[in-house]
TrEMBL record:
Name of this chain's protein: ROK family protein
Organism expressing this protein natively: Bacteroides oleiciplenus
Homology family: Belongs to the ROK (NagC/XylR) family.
Upper taxonomic lineage: Bacteria, Pseudomonadati, Bacteroidota, Bacteroidia, Bacteroidales
Pfam family, one: ROK
Origin superkingdom: Bacteria
Length: 322
């Protein structure tokens, strides 16, 4: 790639839409965030997507940045052509069987390509962040749920028809509790931030503890550092469950790096040290000998950067150069 290119990257979430104009070196030239209106309707979400695309398009035109296209990271399962949201995004109302790329193209007059939001966070880290220079990585984002992306030989792996890589729904506890997805004992149900908060809250109620503030991951981490027994117990459970899940991924994929993003990843180096202890204890040593477990570099910009990167890398946008 000799000429610098420019693309709009859009990261759609259940609460907000993050967006930006990036060049092919990964530099953000413009960025912002708006509510996604995910709990209202698909039409309202689409209107917000068009709004941010038009805002970014106006900025690009003002500064003479020719836009190659728009990349969008969306929750849910995306078809293999990167054109349609098939479903699986329970936190976005009406978000299924939606020809999203065609709709946004029609309303913005720019070419559009889609992929799963966690996939694009992983692609962003691979291209511009903690995975740069690697060919094989696993990306995990730990939040309300657990999202994931797999990169094999430098390419996103989605399974047949792009229906796979639901890493958060890896079965972890065979006789465990029911997950929100309907299955039993999923990694997400035991190792997400929501699971940590749920467990801490339940035990606090049993013990008659009242903290007079919102119980969230930040509070639990702070109490952990203060050696508060309940926080230590719950964080150690979190390390165990997440570490066991990661050990499974190491045994299957033997990646160069497992990159972790999401709110808890900002807790500090201790977080990765504790997870690594569990993961490497339970993984085959030969599978794990080339693997590092590390923090994501791009923070909440990863999805936007990955969406733009999808445009730069896709042959759809460069047919005349292929």
């Amino acid at each position: 790639m000799t000429d610098r290119q420019y693309a709009i990257g859009i990261d759609l979430g259940g609460t907000s839409i993050k967006f930006g104009l990036l060049d092919s070196d990964g530099q953000f030239l413009h960025e912002g965030k708006v509510p996604s209106y995910a709990d209202i309707s698909a039409e309202d979400i689409i209107n917000q997507l068009v709004r941010v695309a038009e805002e970014t398009k106006s900025f690009a035109h003002k500064h003479n940045y020719p836009i190659t296209g728009i990349g969008i990271g969306s929750p849910g399962i995306i078809d293999t052509t990167g054109r349609t949201v098939l479903g699986g995004a329970e936190n976005l109302k009406g978000w299924e069987n939606l020809a999203l790329a065609e709709i946004i193209e029609t309303r913005t007059a720019l070419p559009v390509i889609l992929d799963n939001d966690a996939n694009l966070m992983g692609l962003g880290e691979l291209t511009y962040g903690a995975g740069k220079g690697c060919t094989d990585i696993i990306f995990l984002t730990i939040g309300t749920g657990i999202g994931g992306a797999i990169v094999i030989d430098g390419k996103l792996f989605g399974g047949f028809a792009n229906r796979g890589t639901e890493l958060g729904h890896t079965p972890l506890i065979a006789t465990g509790e029911r997950c929100a997805c309907g299955a039993t004992g999923c990694l997400e149900h035991y190792a997400s931030t929501a699971a940590l908060v749920r467990r801490f809250t339940a035990l606090a109620n049993e013990q008659g503890l009242n903290f007079n503030t919102e119980i969230n991951g930040e509070l639990i981490v702070r109490l952990y550092h203060e050696s508060f027994p309940l926080a230590v117990e719950c964080m150690n459970e979190h390390f165990y469950y997440l570490g066991r899940g990661i050990a499974g991924f190491i045994n299957i994929f033997s990646p160069q790096r497992i990159i972790i993003g999401g709110g808890l990843s900002e807790a500090g180096d201790f977080y990765f040290e504790e997870i690594s202890k569990v993961a490497f204890k339970h993984a085959f040593s030969t599978c794990a000998e080339n693997t590092q477990i590390m923090r994501a570099n791009l923070g909440n910009r990863a999805g936007t950067a990955g969406a733009a990167s999808l445009v730069f890398q896709s042959k759809i946008f460069h047919k005349d150069k292929s």
